[in-house]
Amino acid sequence: AIIGGLLCANYILGNKLSIDYDILNMSVQLEGHPDNVSPAILGGIISGVVIKNEDFKYVKINPPKNLKAVVAIPNFYLSTETARNALPKEISFKDAVFNISRAALLTSALFSNRLDLLETASDDKLHQDYRAKFIPGLKDLFKQAKNAGAYSVTISGAGSSILALVKNDEKIIKKVSNVMKENFAKKKIDSEIMVLNIPSKGIIIK
Known about the structure:
Alpha-Beta Plaits; globular
């Protein structure tokens, strides 16, 4: 909504603002998190968004063509504030090293189309274990979706949606989708399943 409003206003005013700097900067100021707005604006997979001297440093990775996203959206609300408050104020050096190494592997795996590495690259010690208590059956869902053929399964953002990255194969997509929906159903939670492309292009006005 923030990006849409800014883009429409910019269009009405004659496109005086640049998309990849001005609109991006204003969106971050309004929304507060560059990792949320930058992919929506720029498209693709945005790695390592860093703000330095009021400038954005990032790398855009074109998504692998044979990669799909399966998202399970349970019908209960988990506020971002609640999910963030569950995180510890300090983390161990060991856990920091664990996640930094996975982040580096994730970027390399996407660049080189090594989708077989996504499971390991998406391992986490910084937030998912702390937030698992808010999403019933999360660990079982992760395990079963991976067994069904998903490359990786993670909490989407702060939750409560779950994101599985899968091969663009109808059988695998259907199997992973069914497993995710059935897992929530076992906990008497309805959910919506969405199968999504990862667009390489960002915002446009047609």
